[in-house]
## 1
Amino acid sequence: MPVLRFPDPRDADEDGLLALGGDLHPESLRMAYGQGIFPWPHQGMPLLWFSPPMRAVLDFSDLHVPKSLAKERRKGRFTFTIDAAFERVIRSCRRSPRPEQEGTWITAEMVRAYVLLHRLGDAHSVEAWDEDGELVGGLYGVDAGGAFAGESMFFVQPYASKLCLLHLIDHLAAQGVDWLDIQMMTPHFAALGAKEIDREAFLARLARERARGLRLFDPVDPIGLP
């Protein structure tokens, strides 16, 4: 059963924790992302929902592509697709080791929930394939009603996930989008030009983007909700 209502995201505590409990029903996730909220499971605890006091975003006008990454892009070693292998991407992200983290927040329940969200047209992936047709990198995230929230990335060949990100940015820019929600800052995104803005500024930006009514991706074949 979906969550009926979330608290105001401005009421989150100093760590960004807003609510406990509920489930990962597609309508719960749609409501959450539309309000700038995202789930972050912690082992042994009810499902946690967050709205951080500082939000990391990447404005495309601030994008810095390092010389090494630009050089790899010019080589054209990979082929890129969108929504060609969502489930493989999220499962690969789940298996991908995270520095200074034990295990992963992408639980089996999260995988099932986001795969369903993808089939309903709200979650999307970018894939990188090598010359042999092997999946060597990817990322996935959620369309929050015209704004894209990145979730996770993986790679098995150097630069594959970073080039997927550039492919995503090119795609979103072609749809009229000029920024990306990356939720939490990382050294990788900081090097690309990402910045942090406060919650109030982020929520205002999200509301403006949703009001534009942009379609970010081609529709998928619809399925019914469980």
## 2
Amino acid sequence: MITAEFESFYIVNVYTPNAKPDLSRLPLRHKQWDPAFLEFVKQLEKQKPVIFTGDLNVAHTPDDLANPKANEGDHGYTIEERQGIDR
């Protein structure tokens, strides 16, 4: 994660850990990474607006995938990962 401060905003570029094809890192992602990243951004937002970008390793909505039904529950498209990005 790289955070740059500008006069009127912050920009955060992040590579979010993926859940792995066997979902072995899903608990890390859902219980640790997502809440910690959200808290970090919220703390910055107390000072000024935040723009975040990067590789979030999640398809947020069905529109983000060619075959969402076939990918349901796969890494990058689990309910937990989508809930994390919603927050």
